């Protein structure tokens, strides 16, 4: 930092000219200087020296308190390489190491008690000199030692495996860097644990819960016997919250490991006697859930979906474990009394209580004691959506709380929901993430684009207006800019994800670019196949492009391999965009993520963004811990159909078309 920053801390009263003339040009140079060195400088008196050093120390303290651990994969210096090599073996051992240490400690403590008791029979002379009572006690202690060593097969395996992993040869630097890129989240978890780094704002890491509730959650035990993953502090708190409160919504930002927190809670309950649990999720993430459960825990997972569902269902009922099913299949399953925990992923799917999936979830909620809803977007358009989710868990929790009149009501709402709703924001708890850079790419309509847009406005087709910029791919200005962005990424060997709401837009993109293309991920692609596409994209060497419908690729899939995200058009729901971006910018990402949103001036894009900002304010006021939005919720509570009508009317007026007509809202599907 330049030495001039000292004046900011000293309130502008510090004269630093003499320091600069003497070669003290940085804050560090002042910090490292001795009082004698500074005070002997011409023009630097005792007061100036004292103020300068106090200001430098203040800046140093603030820097230490705010600094975060971040490993730059593009700057592989020797010191960081040594750090990764040192961490490599500890990461390889994983959470088995502390468990092995605790187990070994328990064995040692027991042996330390028994061995002295058995000593009287350790030799013929001691046998003779010991009385019969001591020899009897010694024989009993010897039997217990033999039993302890003979029966602890699992203990012996645990300790042996941990010891073997720790004794592996150190890898070379290249292997350590490769391993870090593959499982960066594990390295950062370990760094946070070893260095005692924690979010600077504990209240934010605990979701700003009331003090008494936060204290109760901290006191909740969390058994890790069946868990195979280390937890960050905020993740352990989330799992404890689910266990302590029993019927809750975990509303963390995307990318904070809600799945891991759910698995930690499941593992605790099964370690304490629960035999059966059930996970309900969209079909697109079913395979990911099966993988995560069996990778991150010792629990057995059963796929209650597709052709294998009948046999898997029988096996689950007989043997116990965690069954994973989809929203569409849930209504076919009868409730099972022995189910100890129900996890509902992407719980905003059941915000409408009238749908079949919502009724099926409600039926299970009534029968299961511990229920965890997971969603980063509990409210997309209307406050009643949020309230509907809470009513599944705690009917009538809000009592007479009214919604949508003043900002004071938002505070009342948050106070009422605290016992059932926990949310942490990414910027508060995952401080090592590389930068997320948003860039709006404004491209003027080409003549062909403009003609297609005017035709769509005239016919009142809202969705045609949204994709008019791609109606003639050969002359599309947006598509030309997209090609340029992909070419830049190719030169830098970066992976790219292209999101659009429309399949025909993705098809146009696929034909327009020369890069290796994966996908598209779309709603009609079988869930298992979606994961295969993502795996192939992740495994591809160097540059590649993944095409995805934003309503499909933005849910449940992990896309950390991508460091460039291109969104072809603004979305009707702001949560669609934030979910999609969070699939790449999430825990485990090691490179800066660039997000490019393709927009057209003097079009519906401008109006749509303005209205979406209003919807985002509504979410901030009620569902995110932040400053209250200035506008009343009613001002931004807009359904998709009303939004379509409003934008079409305004664009018709702007383009001075002849007669206003009712937009074709059937085209909104």
UniProtKB/TrEMBL annotation:
> Per its UniProt record, what Pfam families does this chain match?
Helicase_C, SNF2-rel_dom
Q: Where is the Helicase ATP-binding domain?
A: 239-396
Gene3D superfamilies, from UniProt?
A: P-loop containing nucleotide triphosphate hydrolases, Tandem AAA-ATPase domain
Q: Where is the Helicase C-terminal domain?
A: 481-644
Q: Which GO terms describe its molecular function?
A: helicase activity
Report which superkingdom the organism of origin falls in: Bacteria
Could you tell me which InterPro entries the record lists for this protein? Answer: Helicase_ATP-bd, Helicase_C-like, P-loop_NTPase, SNF2-like_sf, SNF2/RAD54-like_C, SNF2_N
Which UniProt keywords are given for this protein, alphabetically ordered? ATP-binding, Helicase, Hydrolase, Nucleotide-binding
* Entries under SUPFAM superfamilies matching the protein: P-loop containing nucleoside triphosphate hydrolases
Q: In its UniProt entry, what is this protein called?
A: SNF2 family DNA or RNA helicase
């Amino acid at each position: 930092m330049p030495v001039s920053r000292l004046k900011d801390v000293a309130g502008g009263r510090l004269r630093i000219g003499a320091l600069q003339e003497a070669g003290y040009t940085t804050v560090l140079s002042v910090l490292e200087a001795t009082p004698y060195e500074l005070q002997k400088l011409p023009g630097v008196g005792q007061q100036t020296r004292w103020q300068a050093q106090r200001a430098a120390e203040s800046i140093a303290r603030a820097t230490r308190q705010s600094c975060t651990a971040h490993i730059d994969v593009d700057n592989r210096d020797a010191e960081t390489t040594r750090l990764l090599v040192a961490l490599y073996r500890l990461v390889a051992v994983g959470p088995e190491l502390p468990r092995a240490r605790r187990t070994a400690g328990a064995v040692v403590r027991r042996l330390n008690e028994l061995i002295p008791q058995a000593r009287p029979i350790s030799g013929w002379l001691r046998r003779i000199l010991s009385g019969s009572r001591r020899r009897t006690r010694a024989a009993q202690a010897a039997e217990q030692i033999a039993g302890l060593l003979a029966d602890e097969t699992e203990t012996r395996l645990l300790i042996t495996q941990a010891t073997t992993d720790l004794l592996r040869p150190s890898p070379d630097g290249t292997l350590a860097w490769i391993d870090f890129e593959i499982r960066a989240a594990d390295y950062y978890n370990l760094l946070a644990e070893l260095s005692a780094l924690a979010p600077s704002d504990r209240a934010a890491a605990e979701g700003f819960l009331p003090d008494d509730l936060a204290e109760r959650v901290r006191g909740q035990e969390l058994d890790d016997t069946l868990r195979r993953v280390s937890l960050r502090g905020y993740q352990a708190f989330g799992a404890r919250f689910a266990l302590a409160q029993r019927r809750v919504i975990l509303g963390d930002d995307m990318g904070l490991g809600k799945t891991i927190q759910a698995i930690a809670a499941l593992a605790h309950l099964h370690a304490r006697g629960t035999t059966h649990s059930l996970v309900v999720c969209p079909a697109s993430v079913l395979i990911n859930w099966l993988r995560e459960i069996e990778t991150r825990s010792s629990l057995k997972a059963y796929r209650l979906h597709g052709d294998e569902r009948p046999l898997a269902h029988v096996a689950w009922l007989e043997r116990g474990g965690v069954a994973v099913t989809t929203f569409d299949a849930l209504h076919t399953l009868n409730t099972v009394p022995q189910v100890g925990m129900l996890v509902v992923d992407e719980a905003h799917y059941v915000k409408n209580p009238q749908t079949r999936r919502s009724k099926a979830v409600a039926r299970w909620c009534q029968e299961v004691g511990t229920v965890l809803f997971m969603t980063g977007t509990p409210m997309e358009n209307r406050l009643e959506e949020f309230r509907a989710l809470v009513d599944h868990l705690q009917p009538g929790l809000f009592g007479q709380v009214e919604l949508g009149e003043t900002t004071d009501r938002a505070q009342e709402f948050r106070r009422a929901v605290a016992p059932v709703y926990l949310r942490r924001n990414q910027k508060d708890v995952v401080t090592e993430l590389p930068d997320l850079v948003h860039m709006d790419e404004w491209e003027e309509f080409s003549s062909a684009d403009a003609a297609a847009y005017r035709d769509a406005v005239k016919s009142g087709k809202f969705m045609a207006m949204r994709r008019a910029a791609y109606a003639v791919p050969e002359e599309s200005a947006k598509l030309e800019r997209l090609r340029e962005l992909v070419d830049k990424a190719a030169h830098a060997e970066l992976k790219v994800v292209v999101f659009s709401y429309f399949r025909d837009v993705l098809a146009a993109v696929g034909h327009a670019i020369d890069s290796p293309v994966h996908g598209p991920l779309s709603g009609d692609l079988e869930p298992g196949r979606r994961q295969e596409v993502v795996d192939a994209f992740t495994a591809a060497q160097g540059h590649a492009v993944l095409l995805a419908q934003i309503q499909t690729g933005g849910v449940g899939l992990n896309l950390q391999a991508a460091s460039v995200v291109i969104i072809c058009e603004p979305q009707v729901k702001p949560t669609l965009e934030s979910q999609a971006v969070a699939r790449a910018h999430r825990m485990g990402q090691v490179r800066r993520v660039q997000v490019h949103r393709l927009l057209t001036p003097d079009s519906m894009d401008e109006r749509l963004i303005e209205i979406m900002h209003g919807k985002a304010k509504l979410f901030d006021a009620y569902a995110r811990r932040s400053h209250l939005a200035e506008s009343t919720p009613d001002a931004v509570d807009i359904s998709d159909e009303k939004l379509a009508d409003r934008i079409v009317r305004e664009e018709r007026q702007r383009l001075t078309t002849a007669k206003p007509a009712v937009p074709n809202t059937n085209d909104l599907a």
